[in-house]
Specification:
Pathway: Cofactor biosynthesis; thiamine diphosphate biosynthesis; thiamine diphosphate from thiamine phosphate: step 1/1. The chain is an alpha+beta fold and about 350 residues long. About 35% of the residues lie in helices and about 25% in strands.
């Protein structure tokens, strides 16, 4: 069988992957196969656009993620940005720059993961671009969502007196990455079987779950005053809200959720779990603020839906900053750091 050309590859990767019903629900009139896709608009809605890029050896390595995991996570990261506005993810454009060592088979596996995520969250994949690359694979995805006009939850809505909340524990992805890298490094140097990495940590790193339902609950009930998704770490996202809203966020160490699996794994490896909780990133839970009067209703509703909700601090007036009240009652600043692609360190 002769090698497929660009369009043959695109058909092999994308054809028949999504039902007509899913595409129709997203408003798709014409999908992949022409110069542009055609999508019906809705007058009472505003469109949300988000774009993320994953680069081989920067965002993923073969030692830590399968081809299918790469595809799933690349889309999940974009969907999370829509969730952080309280929106509904609808459409995706997928561009890949493919180096020689990423064969057609490997790319099909990547698209297996991507479509698994797309179908789980009802996202119609409607086009993109395919090019060659000299060395590393690059996956760049744009996700389009919509939200009720004038209702999107932004970062600049935090006000003094509000509570700070999270919709799940953090640090799990960082713990999973640590374990996967450690296992890969030690596998070639020892004949002893390494202790297993907690599966919840591995799952959090390889197949994160964007918090779409939580975002919609916060918007539909009018609870979310400000919102961010935890992609670069709790500290970084809290700082973004503080600066956008011109307020001070105070987090309480004793209220920060730490899963038992993470605490145990970190302890076994001589690591303070709080480091991963604050600075790990790629957990894709939501961090936000809400008026104090909504706290009880939020707790009850989230509990009924089986979605975690943790109240972790409050908003104060003052210059934009993030601080933490320690278990010992000391109020100390939290450094403004998280994952930085351009850091020299």
């Amino acid at each position: 069988m002769p090698p497929l050309d660009e369009f043959g590859l695109i058909r092999a990767w994308t054809e028949g992957r999504q039902t007509k019903e899913l595409l129709g629900a997203a408003g798709v009139t014409l999908g992949i196969g022409d110069d542009a896709a055609i999508v019906a608009g809705e007058s009472s809605q505003e469109w949300l656009f988000a774009m993320d890029t994953m680069v081989e050896e920067v965002h993923f390595r073969k030692e830590t993620m399968s081809e299918s995991d790469v595809g799933f996570k690349a889309l999940a990261a974009n969907i999370s940005d829509i969730a952080a506005m309280g929106g509904i993810p609808k459409l995706a454009l997928v561009s890949v720059s493919v180096p020689p060592h990423w064969t057609a088979t490997r790319m099909k596996q990547l698209f297996d993961g991507l479509y698994s995520c797309a179908n789980r969250y009802g996202v119609a994949v409607i086009g993109g671009d395919t090019t060659s690359a000299p060395n590393q694979l690059v996956v760049s995805i744009t996700v389009v969502g919509n939200v009720e006009a004038g209702k999107a939850i932004r970062r600049d809505g935090a006000k003094p007196g509000q509570i700070v909340f999270m919709t799940g524990p953090t640090g799990l992805s960082a713990g999973g990455l640590h374990g996967l890298l450690k296992s890969a490094a030690e596998a070639s140097h020892t004949t002893f079987k390494l202790p297993p990495i907690p599966s919840r940590l591995v799952q959090a790193h390889q197949r994160p779950s964007p918090s779409v339902k939580a975002g919609r609950m916060l918007l539909e009930n009018g609870w979310g005053a400000s919102l961010n998704d935890v992609s670069d770490g709790v500290a970084s996202e809290a700082w973004e809200i503080a600066e956008a809203s011109q307020v001070k966020l105070v987090l309480h160490e004793k209220l920060l959720p730490i899963s038992g699996e993470l605490a145990s794994y970190a302890h076994d490896n001589g690591i303070q779990p709080l480091e991963w909780v604050l600075y790990g990133g790629e957990d894709y839970v939501l961090l936000g603020t809400a008026d104090k009067q909504h706290e009880q209703a939020m707790k009850e509703h989230f509990r009924a839906e089986g979605i975690p909700l943790f109240i972790i601090g409050e908003v104060e007036a003052g210059i934009p900053e993030v601080a933490m009240e320690t278990v010992g009652g000391i109020n100390k600043p939290i450094p403004k750091r998280g994952y930085n692609h351009f850091s020299k360190g």
